[in-house]
Amino acid sequence: MSLLEVTDLRIRYARQGRLKAALRRESHDFEAVCGVSFTLEPGQTLGLVGESGSGKSTIARTLIGLKKSSGGSIRFDGAEISQASGRDWARLRREMSMMWQDPVGSLSPRLTVKSLVTEPLRINGLPAGRTEAERLLGLVGLPAEFATRYPHQLSGGQARRVGVARALALDPKLLIADEPTAGLDMSVQGEVLNLLAEVQARSGVAIVIITHNLNLVRHVTDQMAIMYLGRFVEQGPTEQVFAHPRHPYTKALLAANPEPDPEARHERVALSGEVPSPVNRPSGCDFHPRCPWAREACAAKEPGWTEESGRGHRCLFPL
Amino acid sequence: MASAAVSHRTAEAPQTADPLVSVEGLSVDFATPRGTIHALRDISLEVPKGKVLGLVGESGCGKSTLAYSMIGLLAENARVAGGAIRMGGQDLAHLKPKAWRDLRGTRIAMIFQDPMTSLNPVTTIGKQMIDIQYREPISRSEKRARAIEFLEQVQLPDAAAKLDVYPHQLSGGMRQRVCIAMALLTRPDLLIADEPTTALDATLELQIVTLLRELQETFGCSVLFVSHHLGTVAELCDEVAVMYAGEVVERGHVREVFHAPRHPYTQALFDCDPARIRQATRQLPTIPGTLPDLRQPPAGCAFRARCSKAFGRCAAEHPPLHAAGPGQVARCHLNDPAEDVA
Amino acid sequence: MTDATQSPLPEPGLLARSLSVLSGNRTGVIGFVLVALIVGSAILAPWIVPYDPTAIMTGPRMAPPSAEHWLGTDNIGRDIFSRVIAGGRIAMLVAAASLTAALSAGLLLGLIAGLGPRWLDNLLLLVFDALRSFPTIVFGLAVVTIIGPSLFTVMLVVAITSVPIYARIVRTQTLALKNAEFILAERAMGVGLPRLLFVHVLPNVLGPLLILASMDVPLVIATEAGLSFLGMGVRPPTPSWGVILNDGYNFIRNSPWPVIGGSIPIILVTLGFTFMGEALRDIFDPKLRKAG
């Protein structure tokens, strides 16, 4: 049984007041995530990749219960959780945790590191003393003397470790990491990713990594999904997607995260234009206005999801 | 490491006969309540005419401080402790405010990381673009026409209509294009770009880098491109200077430096870039250790404590910039011919 | 691993930070000294006044300052210096009580407006703005006509007119915090509302509020003095600074000393608390702290 099974997930955001919308005869909300499906096995890592506005962080917030879904189902550990009650969530939040984008900004500024890492224990009425704090800090390789520091006294990498320790405090089954390397120097990024891999090998936690950085996904995920305008455009085992991208957007993203090689300078696929607004979607394929390979049919016909041998894509004329 | 890539190339030295700007032994200190931070120490480099110089390094290495010192926008607690920045007979490191005002926006222009903060939010793009041409002895309609021409140069779709919009009505990528157009309007000799693509998505980042490359070729200006992103530096720059802890540790042609880095820090930095690792791995390389305290810079090599190749001499003697290949220099004793013999 | 074992940044403590700010800030030092003197004399008033501030003396009337009477005497022979010291006690009492009340109410209403539903936020904002639209003195006079002049009336007027200012600031700060990542992180961990409010939100809005309150002390005291001067506040013979001024004003042609004696403390309080508030802001402002 999969740990996480998301089927046709839809999430809407309000855009304007209902009254104003009615007067203007417009809809008051729009779909930020439209029909996303994926599964995640225990001990595995899934990468959700996309640029800003692709809906990847929205999915994270819905998984952790901070945002309601408007359709579809989310099954966690065999139980449907998309309509879970407050009491269900109290239990669920012990089994899934989240690492937030901003390493320092996601730590309550007036709390010491000791209080921060033991916060999940305290919330759940478990012992949250010095021993627990030191155990958790040890888990992420921070010396015990860090317990008395405040977030603003930490470097980005140190704050990130505190975030990992906090996320692991209750030994969750699922860890959602939103841009785990954002704002970190290249030499520190590796430390954080190695730490996650180490934790996963030890505890078997399943991880969802949300990022715009394809190079990161390549090394730390088993499966990956590429998002564009709230939809998956391609999904499959990471190695295979990197080796043979089927969707033009995937290919363009790969080209935009290049190996730093001055010789390869002129082989890039530079996309023209920018991501359209999810409020005014293009006709046909979402990506056709920017697609270097677009044909006439792409503007007219909306591509469906094609699945073949464990991979899927949403393109009429896959590469 | 001295690879064939270097030897078969007949590279001209980066020190061209007549550079646009030459930084000579520049040192900058910051006074803080906790002591004086020696943020830049003995920086020497040249911005060649009509070329793109990349400035690479991790946070705290001083790359932005160096860029800001070249346009006279250092923070108030900064002090030039030594050296000079020479450009056309002037020393930019010791320029009076009045002289700076004549230089900025004419010979030197800058674009920043966040285009929203460098545009005035309450004025239209058109008004801002017309206003910055106040020095030009041409009519308003000519200024307007020039503004449109430059917006077209930066490939902003529907340029004429964009004159009447406010910055917040544009996307981040378009705002950065507007900033580039404004910076180029005065046809500067030197364009300083401080992490101009960091706030943008990957596909837009590539667009802006490609655009900068094209514009640089069209206008023939020199560009100082500050970035922590090795991929964009490889994409855009002709020459590169790698900075660590307030020093230039290596510089040279981008091809040589990227293919055959001669300073252990440059090598380690490249090794850490996951884009350079072809085989998928769960164990990514890191650089152990931390930056030295810049209030008391170490006596020997600044990178010594984190360097896997450090030896006795590194602690005792501060390495000079050794010639490391055709047009390539590295601040590492390993490049001293004497060490090779030993 | 290595990044983690970095030696701790030498972070100056609150005391060290305060001293370093004050060492470069002469007005700040003046502010703290003045406030200490004023608050100290207010607390110790009953023991340090040389004469009974309300007792009618047989000595000289309308006397200029002398060795016995530092600020002279008033029209019925009371020692002005003693009355000023005792008046300080009243002023501090009014300031402390009304600002505490205003802070608590402002904090509560601001949190409700910031975290509650949109309609409640809009309603509260409307109430705040309505209250703010009355000039304080006019509002005070209206309240006095309804419930009569007394020390309590003064405190009530000051509290009610200050609540909207504090509530608005708390609301703005709360709205900004509401979407801060650390608040989202706490919610994602399932933190209860009381802990969210008192541990994570409140400490982060309290700082700026206290600084503002310190700068508001002179305003409150001026309001009290103003109302008392108009006979709408503290009733004679209780020695409020406003009352002293009013008494002196009637006899200003005979002697300026009662008026001068009544004004000096108001000026000192204004300077002291304003300087102190500015210094506090320098000490607590996180932006300045980061630069340090």
Automatic annotation (TrEMBL), chain A:
InterPro entries: AAA+_ATPase, ABC_transp_ATP-bind, ABC_transporter-like_ATP-bd, ABC_transporter-like_CS, Oligopep_ABC_C, P-loop_NTPase
GO MF, one annotated term: ATP hydrolysis activity
Superkingdom assignment: Bacteria
Cellular compartment(s): Cell inner membrane
Matches recorded under NCBIfam families: oligo_HPY
Homology family: Belongs to the ABC transporter superfamily.
Descriptive protein name: Peptide/nickel transport system ATP-binding protein
Lineage, highest ranks first: Bacteria, Pseudomonadati, Pseudomonadota, Alphaproteobacteria, Rhodobacterales
TrEMBL record, chain B:
Protein keywords: ATP-binding, Cell membrane, Membrane, Nucleotide-binding, Transport
Main location: membrane
Sequence similarity: Belongs to the ABC transporter superfamily.
Lineage of producing organism: Bacteria, Pseudomonadati, Pseudomonadota, Alphaproteobacteria, Rhodobacterales
The protein's name in its UniProt record: Peptide/nickel transport system ATP-binding protein
Pfam families the UniProt entry points to: ABC_tran (PF00005), oligo_HPY (PF08352)
Domain ABC transporter, chain residue ranges per copy: 23-270
Single GO MF annotation: ATP hydrolysis activity
SMART domains: AAA (SM00382)
InterPro entries recorded: AAA+_ATPase (IPR003593), ABC_Ni/Peptide_Import (IPR050388), ABC_transporter-like_ATP-bd (IPR003439), ABC_transporter-like_CS (IPR017871), Oligopep_ABC_C (IPR013563), P-loop_NTPase (IPR027417)
Organism: Alloyangia pacifica
Membrane-topology descriptor: Peripheral membrane protein
Record GO biological process: peptide transport; transmembrane transport
Compartment list: Cell inner membrane
GO cellular component: plasma membrane
TrEMBL record, chain C:
GO cellular component assignments: plasma membrane
GO BP term, pick one: protein transport
Membrane topology: Multi-pass membrane protein
Locations listed in the record: Cell membrane
The organism's place on the tree of life at top rank: Bacteria
InterPro entries: BP-dependent_transpt_permease, MetI-like, MetI-like_sf, OppC_N
Keywords on record: Cell membrane, Membrane, Peptide transport, Protein transport, Transmembrane, Transmembrane helix, Transport
Chain segments annotated as transmembrane: 29-49, 90-116, 136-167, 188-211, 259-280
Segments forming domain ABC transmembrane type-1: 88-277
PANTHER family recorded: D,D-DIPEPTIDE TRANSPORT SYSTEM PERMEASE PROTEIN DDPC-RELATED, OLIGOPEPTIDE TRANSPORT SYSTEM PERMEASE PROTEIN APPC
UniProt record similarity statement: Belongs to the binding-protein-dependent transport system permease family.
Protein name: Peptide/nickel transport system permease protein
